[in-house]
Amino acid sequence: IIPCVDSYTKVDLRVLTFDVAPQEILTKDSVTVHVDAIMYYKVSNATSCIANVDDYGKSTRLLAATTLRNVLGTKNLGDILSERESIAHDMQVSLDEATDPWGVKVERVEVKDV
Fold first, then answer.
1. What is the tally of helices (H) and strands (E) in the chain?
2. Residue pair 70/83 in contact by the 8 Å Cβ criterion
3. pTM of the predicted model as reported, rounded to 2 decimal places
4. Mean pLDDT of 37-65
């Protein structure tokens, strides 16, 4: 590191949790539900998370809230109540795919409360 030329950024490589705020979602059968979730993620590539996105934590959290609304908006109320595990898996795969270029690995998503 050369002083006055290079910058140093410390990146936490531990698993981080994010409690997705309750989202008001209109389901496929026009029922309004409030759903919240928890997302577990970690930095898999520190260079990419600094170079490819402005704020990897905030970007990942916003993407989680948007993905929750998008995934649940395509489901009926009965499907949401009965298929929580498959919904969580679909969200995890979608989030992990979207955050891979940022150097972030989404390890797990849990739908908490419907």
1. 4, 3
2. no
3. 0.85
4. 92
